[in-house]
Amino acid sequence: MSRSDTFHPFARVLHWLMALMILTMLFVGAGMVSTVETKHDWLLAIHKPLGITIFVLALIRLGFRLTHPAPPLPVDMPLWQKLAAHASHWLLYALMIALPLIGWGMLSAGNYPVTLGGGLLLPPILPSDPLVFAWLREAHRYLAWLFFLTFLAHMGAALMHGLIRRDGVLQSMTGGRTPD
Amino acid sequence: MTDETGARSRPPTHTAWRWALIGLAVAGFAAAFGYVAGWLAPGRLTPHRLVNAVAANGGEHAGFRRNHAKGVCVAGRFEASGALAGFSTAPLFAAGTSTPVVGRFAVPGSNPYAADSSVPIRSLALRFDLPDGEQWRTGMNAMAMFPVATPQAFYALQLATHADPATGKPDPAKTKAFFESHPETAPFLAWVKTAKPSASYASETYRSINAFYLRDAAGDRHAVRWAMVPEQPAEGDGGPAAGDTDYLAADLGKRLAAGPLRWHLQMVFAVPGDAVDDATRAWPDDRRMVDAGTLVLTSSQPQADGPCRDVNYDPTILPRGIETSDDPLLAARSATYADSYLRRTSEEAHVPGTKHPGEDKR
Ligand code: HEM
Ligand code: HEM
């Protein structure tokens, strides 16, 4: 089923599922810290379990990616664009693993119980330390913003491949037919 | 890979429109994020704005809580009576259970150097550490009801009572206008007229004020508020000497040196029709009460290096068996306490752009 010019179907399903989840997370996170309304509480109740789910899926995805190489980029792409593509993809992997870990770590350092709802409780991954909490909490915010900017660049580049260059790169992830 | 030469040989038509579409998609997501994050919604009451307003009256003091800044740490345990076990599955209510507690007595206001007599209200915050890692955090005030029911009204109250820079006192016209346009404040105003600053933390009754739900083993929920009722009687006279501004912590230390202090956790059950989402409306005195157990406080520590310093007593951190109600103040407290907690811990951590706690002056 998998062709060399498209991603493996499992990789494509994970990609679009996680794209939706991560985008949701960024909006949920930004929204919940900017409101004093009751939605603050239920957004936070979504934020933690969804973030941990992303963490688990990201590990699976990284493992799959390391064992299943991505289709090559078009040979006529300028070198700087190829470098930018590779760098941004690894940055996205790094962020989808680091951000949930930092979320979990900062709650541990703040001596908060890491509750995921339904009575589910994660163990702390760091000893309680308010200074570590403060640094991680700031890092969680700025890395989330970096995540959003990287997403914007990623989406812009994907659309550029699909609409301007029409070189099959977008289709390698959508799975549609490449332009002929 | 695709047939490159094929793909390149047919340049796309309407290139300008295609670029515009891409630009629109990127700008659209950016604008949506900016709106949700509040940057493009300047009118929104954010936790940050609300904390700024709360802290403005007593000033911002680096490293300190932005409200209830003056306080003292206490430690002890909670001994369950077992009487509440039928109403809540929270393990700390099972008969014979003893749960360690880290607490804090405090005086409302953002100035950690304010005189103890500056307000007629004292507070008690507690963190119960359950054996399985769950926690119950609660912040209680020694008053019968809250002045307002919503975070918006609380914000307006702060603005209406800010000291006028010219006189150093709140503008009476503004204050009057606020209370007139907020009739829900009437019960509080009536209560506060009779309230006097107590000479001791030990003789106060501390109340949750906000309502919560207990969840029992059958899955049924019960609307409650709670009160920590002291065993220590109120002292008739022998109050603090005139001019003494820091008598509360000293009194507490003296009493604890003589032996533990005790309160009873009285759970008050609502009947249908009682306000579960409105902290301005106290429930009548005849509501059913269940004595859930005894809070035994055995020691106190200064907050500068005590175990309560770096605790955020967020009242929405609850174990299984206790749940939040629809009271809109609860989410606002959770959001603003997190903001205040991040400010003070960032200051302790010397995160760039923050003031260092040591620079704080009276
Ligand atoms: C892909 C994963 C995640 C993303 C994209 C994400 C994103 C965000 C964003 C954008 C914010 C707002 C930051 C700010 O403006 O201050 C935030 C805050 C927060 N996040 Fe996450 N997050 C993720 C995972 C997690 C996880 C796994 C946890 C915990 C288990 C977590 C816990 C929190 C908490 C507690 C806050 C702050 C709440 C407050 O201060 O009131 N996050 N997150
Ligand atoms: C929207 C309304 C409210 C706002 C904006 C607000 C704001 C704050 C803030 C910013 C703090 C400092 C938190 C920290 O740094 O850890 C605080 C502490 C506290 N608040 Fe509130 N508060 C509100 C309502 C209430 C209510 C209804 C109660 C009633 C019981 C209450 C009781 C307390 C107590 C006891 C503390 C001290 C906790 C401690 O000792 O650490 N607050 N409040």
Q: What is the name of the CATH class of chain B?
A: Mainly Beta
User: In CATH's first tier, which class of chain A applies?
Assistant: Mainly Alpha
What is the radius of gyration of chain A computed over CA atoms, rounded to a whole number of angstroms? Answer: 18 Å
Number of strands of chain A: 2
- Helix/strand-derived category of chain B reads alpha+beta
Strand-pairing-aware structural class of chain A: mainly alpha
- Determine the number of helices of chain A (DSSP H or I, runs of at least 4 residues): 5
Largest sheet of chain A: 2 strands, antiparallel
Strands in their spatial order, largest beta sheet of chain A: 1-2
Question: What portion of residues of chain B is helical?
Answer: 25-40%
Query: Which fold does the CATH topology of chain A refer to?
Result: Fumarate Reductase Cytochrome B subunit
Number of helices of chain B: 8
CATH architecture of chain B: Beta Barrel
- The protein's oligomeric status is heterodimer
Task: Give unreliable regions of chain A as ranges.
Answer: none
What is the strand and helix layout of this fold?
The complex is a heterodimer of chains A (180) and B (362).
Chain A: H1 9-32, H2 39-67, H3 79-109, E1 114-117, E2 120-122, H4 130-165, H5 171-174
Antiparallel strand pairs in A: 1-2
Chain B: H1 4-9, H2 15-36, H3 47-56, E1 70-80, E2 98-107, E3 123-129, E4 135-141, H4 151-161, H5 172-181, H6 186-194, E5 206-207, E6 212-215, E7 221-230, H7 247-258, E8 261-269, E9 289-302, E10 322-324, H8 328-348
Antiparallel strand pairs in B: 1-2, 1-9, 2-3, 3-4, 5-7, 6-7, 6-10, 7-8, 8-9
Helix pairs in contact in B: 3-4, 3-8, 4-5
Residues 22, 25-26, 29-30, 33, 47-48, 51-52, 54, 96, 99-100, 103-104, 107, 114, 140-141, 144, 147 of chain A line the site of one protoporphyrin IX containing FE.
